[in-house]
Design a protein that fits this description.
This protein is α+β, with helices and mostly antiparallel strands. It has one domain: Aminoglycoside phosphotransferase (APH), C-terminal lobe (Aminoglycoside 3'-phosphotransferase, Chain: A, domain 2). The chain is 47% helix and 13% strand. The strands form two sheets. A two-stranded antiparallel ribbon has the order 1-4. Helix 4 packs antiparallel against helix 5. It is globular, with a radius of gyration of 14 Å. The N and C termini lie close together (9 Å).
Length: 118
């Protein structure tokens, strides 16, 4: 998966990206997205980095709907999955107690990314 993703490139014009679209940077009010914060990594580039949220925050049907509605090419989703794998692996390596809830979450993300049909 990683090698296939690295062999692809965003072929369209660069788009605005947040750069760190993670759970800690989204605000939810009454079960709805109400805001996004921390724009320190904002840039123009490949949207795959912001699509990591599909594996770090969404599960099951919600992830399916998100991917379907975003409607990007398979290569972009492959890069997004690989980005999610990198991020979760990096986070897991930083956690001393590999049996902690935080480590378990990162392992769940890694498993989800590696075992998804795509």
């Amino acid at each position: 998966m990683w090698e296939r993703a690295c062999a692809t490139r965003w072929q369209k014009r660069p788009v605005w990206i947040h750069g760190d679209f993670s759970v800690g940077n989204i605000l939810i009010n009454n079960k709805r997205l109400s805001g996004v914060i921390d724009f320190g990594g904002t840039a123009m580039g490949d949207p795959a980095c912001d699509l990591v949220i599909a594996w770090t925050y969404l599960y099951g049907k919600a992830r399916e709907i998100f991917i379907r509605e975003i409607d990007l090419d398979n290569d972009t989703w492959l890069r997004a999955r690989s980005w999610a794998l990198w991020k979760a692996t990096f986070e897991l390596c930083q956690i001393e107690d590999k049996d902690s809830p935080e480590a378990t979450l990162q392992k769940k993300i890694i498993d989800s990314v590696l075992n998804e049909d795509a």
